[in-house]
UniProtKB/TrEMBL annotation:
<dbReference type="Pfam" id="PF08240">
    <property type="entry name" value="ADH_N"/>
</dbReference>
<dbReference type="InterPro" id="IPR013149">
    <property type="entry name" value="ADH-like_C"/>
</dbReference>
<dbReference type="GO" id="GO:0016651">
    <property type="term" value="F:oxidoreductase activity, acting on NAD(P)H"/>
</dbReference>
<protein>
    <submittedName>
        <fullName>Trans-enoyl reductase ccsC</fullName>
    </submittedName>
</protein>
<dbReference type="InterPro" id="IPR013154">
    <property type="entry name" value="ADH-like_N"/>
</dbReference>
<dbReference type="InterPro" id="IPR047122">
    <property type="entry name" value="Trans-enoyl_RdTase-like"/>
</dbReference>
<dbReference type="InterPro" id="IPR020843">
    <property type="entry name" value="ER"/>
</dbReference>
<dbReference type="InterPro" id="IPR036291">
    <property type="entry name" value="NAD(P)-bd_dom_sf"/>
</dbReference>
<feature type="domain" description="Enoyl reductase (ER)">
    <location>
        <begin position="42"/>
        <end position="366"/>
    </location>
</feature>
<dbReference type="InterPro" id="IPR011032">
    <property type="entry name" value="GroES-like_sf"/>
</dbReference>
<dbReference type="Pfam" id="PF00107">
    <property type="entry name" value="ADH_zinc_N"/>
</dbReference>
Length: 368
């Protein structure tokens, strides 16, 4: 671990031994919102605010980040609700989306690309002690941490809202559907079901940035929002003829071949109806799988960001596309979505309650 610039190492250099030990003990714990149980009801009973959570230490491949803001995702609730993805013994800090400042860097090559004081953002991982971002400090694998020049003009809350949504959307479009990150056939359209949600709004922006034409499905109150993000066509999922409207946007020479569903098995089925009859059509989904079968079959590829940062195809994909995504921010092709800001670590509980009740076109972010 590189401690250059670390305030604690400066204290080590210039202080008496007894003061050093007192200071070290003081910084060994931190405040965090932790999982204390699973499957309790109401779902918030699985969380508690604690002051004595062990402060994580970065491994060679990791960065230690002082967290400035953390977004709340549906998966944070699901982990507690279903007791899934709990890889460490309870209690451990919850949360996986963050923006913060690098406090220490590991000795490995990927970590050494960063310096103490760098502003970073992104997604850390699910269910492991030390990775939880509803905490004063968290570790992140350096090879998936995001850093870009455009970040200087963005707030901590905006940056914290990026990680899970954008990386899941990138997996859905450029990995699961296999769409090139630069569109090779002008006019190719992508149907995005749930375009006003966090994943869907990033999918809309990413597809547009890559040169695709976006057909966005959301409620009418969010039409203007998704158009601002780059959608060419908007369709209200509440309309009884939504599928017919979408199919009419394709043509015999250029039918809709690609769809990304971000809501449920029911939305996967509706996507299948939209793609039915098109040769080589493909669907990806980050929530649920289709139950409907058509001829010719529409294959559906599931997306699971939660396998990152464990080694595997999803981790390799995120490592490969990270620099391009950061360049798209710097080129102004990507902008942060709408956020609802709360303040103070204690208000994570309020934020979890808001996400549990359902959000529309906004990401809940807690600024510490
Ligand atoms: N597999 C993975 O790796 C992965 C990663 C991230 C998220 N997810 C999952 O993906 C889902 C979406 O996550 P998120 O963070 O994007 O959620 P979110 O931002 O909370 O989604 C809220 C949005 O869902 C939209 N919506 C609700 N019902 C809809 C319907 N029937 N059709 C179209 N849109 C509908 C709402 O749109 P309107 O307000 O316009 O009605 C709202 O804007 C969640 O279930 C989450 O757990 C999976």
């Amino acid at each position: 671990m590189n401690l250059r610039g670390d305030p604690q190492s400066q204290i080590l250099a210039g202080s008496s031994q007894s003061f050093v030990w007192a200071r070290a003990a003081e910084t060994r714990t931190m405040k965090a919102v932790v999982y204390v149980s699973s499957k309790a009801t109401p779902v918030l009973a699985n969380f508690a605010v604690k002051d004595d959570v062990p402060k994580p230490q970065p491994a060679d491949t990791q960065l230690l980040v002082k967290v400035e803001a953390a977004a709340i995702n549906p998966v944070d609730l699901l982990i507690g609700q279903l007791g899934i993805f709990m890889a460490s013994p309870l209690p451990f800090a919850a949360g996986c989306d963050f923006c913060g400042t690098v406090e220490a860097v590991g000795a490995g090559d990927a970590a050494q690309q960063f310096a103490v004081g760098d502003r970073v953002f992104g997604y850390t991982g699910l269910g492991k002690a030390g990775f939880g971002t509803f905490a004063e400090y968290a570790v992140v694998e350096a090879s998936v941490a995001l850093k870009c020049n455009a970040a200087t003009a963005m707030s901590s809350a905006q940056l914290a809202s990026v990680g899970v949504g954008m990386l899941t959307a990138a997996l859905g479009l450029f990995h699961a559907l296999g769409l090139p990150m630069q569109c090779k056939a002008p006019g190719t359209s992508v149907l995005i079901w749930g375009a006003s949600g966090s994943v869907g709004s990033w999918a809309t922006q990413l597809a547009r940035a890559a040169g695709y034409s976006v057909i966005a499905v959301c409620s009418a109150r969010n039409f203007d929002y998704v158009k601002q993000l780059g959608a060419q066509h908007v369709v209200d999922y509440g309309a009884p003829d939504a599928v017919a409207q979408i199919r009419a946007l394709g043509s015999s020479s250029q039918p809709i071949r690609y769809a990304f569903s971000t809501i449920s098995s029911a939305s996967c089925d509706l996507c299948v109806e939209c793609l039915a009859g098109t040769a080589d059509a493909k669907l990806s989904s980050c929530q649920g799988a289709p139950t409907k079968t058509v001829e010719p079959a529409v294959p559906c590829e599931s997306v699971f960001l939660g396998s990152v940062p464990n080694p595997g195809p999803n981790m390799s994909f995120v490592e490969q596309v990270r620099d391009t995504l950061c360049e798209w921010f710097d080129e102004g092709k990507l902008i942060p979505g709408r956020v609802r800001e709360l303040h103070g670590l204690d208000s994570v509980m309020e934020g979890l309650q808001m996400v549990s009740a359902g959000m529309s076109g906004e990401k809940v972010v807690v600024v510490f």
